[in-house]
Amino acid sequence: MRVVSGMRPTGKLHLGHYIGVLENWKKLQDEYEAFFFVADWHALTTKFDEHIDLKQNSVDLVKEWIACGINPDKCNLYIQSEVKEHAELYLILNMITPVSWLERNPTYKDAMQQAEYKKKNNAGFLTYPVLQTADIILYDADVVPIGEDQKPHLELAREIVRHFHYLYKTEIFTEPKELLTKNARLPGLDGRKMSKSFGNAIYLDDSTEEIWQKLRKAKTDTSRIKKTDPGHPDECIVFDYHKAFSPANEVQEIKAACEAGSIGCVECKKRCAANIDKILEPVREKKASLNDNEILDIIRNGNKKAKEIAKEKMQKVNKVIF
Ligand code: TRP
Ligand code: SF4
């Protein structure tokens, strides 16, 4: 069974990526034949005008994956734009995909409510899910791990596969199944979505001191004024972080102490910061021990393996069409 997943190289990774994506990928690499790639063309769908260094960002991204425990001996790590078959299949799929399917995609509809996207209104953004479909079915992925927000994209991928099979009276692709990621989404330190643009994220390469300084300012249960006031951990962001990063027995203890008003928020945050640091310290160390050249070697290797499979698939596709 094969799993395919990608990440856009739009900047350094934060704890939300760690909990929401990478913890999951680490499990999947043991259970599946895993293909994890840098979706650099996808980054261009929204950031074509920002001139970000996609090459360096891609190397940095793969480096962070490996620092987190993604093992290049267990899975294929590669760059989307290095395997041109992604673009070739994207082109073919664009021919058969009705624009109305893309216009009803909730991600697209939401974005079009925002002035920034409305102004750009580039074709590549509309066809984002078509490229994503190509990424997936080029490798006959059996499953794709996704968060709730990506559900419509995967459903579209399945529809496009069925449409292709119907039009060309042949079944050459695998219909991918979704593997819904269970980890709840980790909120940012201010309670909004964790995001670089909100300045509310803890990054994987933040130092011990930076982690503490950020957590210190995190929003807590606002009804708690004095240290002895009983708190409501379920209404506190710091408690979300405890649930994600502290050992289970400590989470229970914190919950009870907060509800009893026997622990202060400062102490609670200190313990939370320490537990996050315990997880990030080895990640920082591993990242520092990796150099760009060895990452480039890993990527070259991954590109090659991906290309072999992709090429074979495109031969089949082209035989059906031409
Ligand atoms: N759309 C995904 C995201 O924003 C990234 C992505 C691109 C992807 N191609 C993919 C994920 C193929 C899974 C499979 O997170
Ligand atoms: Fe939140 Fe901890 Fe304060 Fe309770 S004690 S409100 S969990 S920071």
Structural descriptors:
2 domains; 322 residues; Tyrosyl-Transfer RNA Synthetase; mainly alpha; Rossmann fold
| Percent of sequence in beta strands | 5-15%
**Secondary structure category:** mainly alpha
- Kindly report the spatial arrangement of strands forming the biggest sheet: 1-2-3
Q: Write the element-wise H/E pattern from the N-terminal end onward.
A: EHEHHEHHHHHHEHEHHHHH
CATH topology of the largest domain: Rossmann fold
Describe the protein's architecture and organization.
The chain has helices at about 15-30, 40-45, 55-65, 85-95, 100-105, 105-110, 115-120, 125, 130-135, 150-170, 210-215, 235-245, 250-260, 265-290, 290-320, and strands spanning about 1-5, 35-40, 75-80, 145, 175-180. With about 325 residues, it is mainly alpha-helical. The protein has two domains: about 1-185 and about 290-320, 3-Layer(aba) Sandwich (Rossmann fold), CATH 3.40.50; about 205-285, Orthogonal Bundle (Tyrosyl-Transfer RNA Synthetase). It is globular and about 75 Å long. The structure holds tryptophan and iron/sulfur cluster (SF4). The site of iron/sulfur cluster has 14 residues, from helix 12, helix 13 and helix 14.
